[in-house]
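Dear colleagues,

As part of the handover before I leave the project, I'm documenting each prediction I ran so the next person doesn't have to rerun anything. This entry is a single chain, and its sequence is reproduced below.
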Amino acid sequence: MTPQRRAAIDPQIRTLIADDEPLARRGIRHLLERESGIEIVGEATGGIEAADLIRRLRPDLVFLDVQMVGCDGFETLSRVGPDLAPVVVFVTAYDEYALRAFEFNAVDYLLKPYDDARFSAALGRARDLVARKRTDAVDTKLERLIEHLEGESRDRILVKSSGEIIFLKTSEIDWIEAEGDYVKFHVAGRAHLMRGTMSKLEERLDPNRFIRIHRSTIVNSDRLRKLSPSFEGEYAVVLQDGTKLRLSRGYQDRIKSLLGRVE
């Protein structure tokens, strides 16, 4: 999904206007009120007030004047700190601050007087960056959730596929095979890929339920039906659905004792 598409479907962009000139604030407000998806959460008349409002209101976007009473726009952001810093469009009548503005990661630098088209372009860049930051924040939270859930129990495996998270109950897994840098879970006739190694996966699975029968294969013991003779003294493991899997000699003892007999 493109940033423009994400911006179109995301919640409104909470926006703060910070400028010590009333006319300048009214001008920005007028242009923003014509736009969809923008919520103006407040106005600041000076740098110290702007820093306080940013910390309290947590806006997504700030139109920030460089020269203001109390402290300038750069000191305002320094007071806020990088952890709470919103997306910033600097607004000023002086082009001499442009380089420093971008050192503060400003998304754009509006030089007064600007026309509607120039303002629209700056807002467009800001929308895209807000959308990316929101997506990154969601991805980070999702990764933390996955790590938490994966560490909580052996009863489920979380598989990421095509942007989705699939929760596999381990009891539903029929068998697992290695496939390059991935492991493939076979569940009721469907397959799910997850990046990882068989050794790491085996450590996470319940050893009372899952048995390794080959360096590339693990089976759910509840799905075992029988062992069938294969070639040169080896056997094939036959699952309840008729799937036949090779049983390596090095893994025969445990599965034979489990089944209790060889057919």
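The CA atoms of residues 173 and 187 lie 5 Å apart. The chain has two domains: 3-143, 153-259.

All the best with the project,
I.
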